[in-house]
Amino acid sequence: MKKYNILLVSHSSELLGAQQSLLYILQYINTDRFTPLVICPRKGPLVQEIEKLGFRVEVVPMQRWLFSGFNLLKELVKPVFQLYSIFKILFLIKKYDIDLIHINTIVNFEAAVAARIAKKPCVWHIREILKDNPGLRTFIGVSNIYKTVYALSDKIICISKAVKCKFLENIKYDIPKIEVVYNAVDIGKFTGVCGDTFRGEFGIRQDTFLAGVVGNIEERKGHTDLLYAIKSIAQKNGRLKDLKFVIVGDGDPEYIAKLKQTVKELDINDYIIFTGFYKGIPAVMAALDLLILPSWEEPFGRVVIEAMAAGKPVIGTNAGGVPEIIEDGKTGILIPSRDPRAMSEAMDKLLKDRKLAQWMGEEGRKRVMKYFTPQAYVREVEKVYSEALVPKRKFSHQNVSLPTHQSRKIE
After folding, report:
1. Which of 138, 129, 196, 135 is nearest to 163 (CA)?
2. What does the H/E/C string look like for 85-111?
3. Which of 249, 394, 386, 407 is nearest to 323 (CA)?
4. Distance between CA atoms of 292 and 324, rounded to whole angstroms?
5. Among 240, 228, 294, which Cα is nearest to 265's?
6. CA distances from 17 to 58, 97, 300, 302, 400 (A)
7. 107, 133 in Cβ contact below 8 A?
8. Beta bridge mates, 210
9. Closest to 186 in 3D by CA, of 326, 17, 57, 39
10. At residue 400, does pLDDT exceed 60?
11. What integer is the mean pLDDT of 403-407?
């Protein structure tokens, strides 16, 4: 059996969700069939972790064709740097006799152009929903981004059916190119972890019911909705002393200041703790009694499977990829997005029925072990590699009917 050289392209050298998925590939890939090489844009924590695993890393600076802030001078010179990156990647493809290129996120395109020039199959991993995402803006329009990705790819991996639906809405047709492969979580990292240290750092008693939201702090994550839900809880339960909420994560200082002002205006200071960025997410999940995901829309919701891996119930919005993870009424509760009242009712239900909350957490852990393991994730990615490496066949474009919201479930 032929052994293939795979070039994995990361848009970042930090250790965030997409990079964790890349590390899972390196940890569990069948090295009898595939030899990975990784490209990172700079030195950083990800490079260190890859080297610990014994794999080669090459640093190739890359420019994002999707951006959060606009800088005219940077945009004017960007094409020069992008051209350099394309030639550097072409050199590496030839030097290491690369058979396939796997781009780990949508935000860089240089490797896809290099793959097309070198006539090598390209797998593009789509982890984002671009519409209404302030961190992923573009000059050429969302639809054109999707169409370009589609044109430059041999196979596309979407992290949820919701992401695939958004993709299909923009390209209007589907040949056998797009696959759904769910993100994974290492359940071992969330097993036997003690949350006492986290609680101790922020002065939270062990008998306090602790709920929290974890992740980047930005408007679309729905933190304001959560604050109004907490206000309702406070009014309904007469200022409970054994209840706290932590907001774990970092973001735009101006927006965080706005949230803190809202906390003061709603008179819920006694309930809320802003922790800032916290590195030990397993310890956070161990400390929580309930995770809340109030996002208006999530491509997947990695923190959901992390909480479930820790045996915690989850309240999440019925939008994006979240309903593909949470079994409503069994592993958590689904609520409409932007609905503080529904969020408040769901929180109140689990606050008053601790046995139900515990049972949901146990069922969530079972679900993670069945559907969201790193080993299963990598086997599915390997299948996509194998399909992309098969000589191309011609397909005709076909109009497709998009999956309905109800169909977005793991069977």
Report:
1. 129
2. HHHHHHHHHHHCCCCEEEECCCCCCHH
3. 407
4. 16
5. 228
6. 21, 29, 11, 7, 31
7. no
8. 244
9. 17
10. no
11. 40
CA distances from 248 to 131, 259, 311 (A): 25, 13, 19
pLDDT of residue 183: 97
* Sheet with 100-103: strands ordered across: 56-59, 34-40, 4-9, 100-103, 122-126, 155-158, 178-180
pLDDT at 192: 95
First to last CA, the chain: 33
Residues forming beta bridges with residue 122, ordered by sequence position: 101
d(CA 241, CA 276): 23
In whole angstroms, give the CA distance from residue 335 to residue 41.
39
Tokens read off for 19:
């990079």
> The dihedral of CA 357, 363, 366, 372: what is its sign?
negative
**Dist. CA 356–CA 63, nearest whole Å:** 48
Helix, strand, or coil (residue 319): coil
Side-chain-side CA neighbours of residue 6 (13 Å): 28
The overall average pLDDT reported for the chain is 90
- For 201, list phi and psi in degrees, rounded to 5: -60, -30
Q: What's the confidence (pLDDT) of residue 241?
A: 76
DSSP 219-275: GGG-HHHHHHHHHHHHHHHTS-SSEEEEEE--B-HHHHHHHHHHHHHHT-TTTEEEE
Tokens of 7: 């070039």
DSSP string, 149-181: HHHH-SEEEESSHHHHHHHHHHH-B--TTEEE-
Instruction: Name which of 179, 123, 188, 186 is nearest 380 in CA terms.
Output: 179
Specify the pLDDT at position 226: 97
Sign of CA dihedral 252, 255, 256, 257: positive
The secondary structure of residue 338, as a DSSP letter, is T
Letter string b/e over residues 109-131, b meaning 16 or more CB atoms within 10 A of that residue's CB:
bbbbbbbbeeebbbbbbbbbbbe
Cβ count within 10 A of residue 67: 17
Q: Which run of H or of E encompasses 379?
A: helix 374-389
- pLDDT of 36 strictly over 70: yes
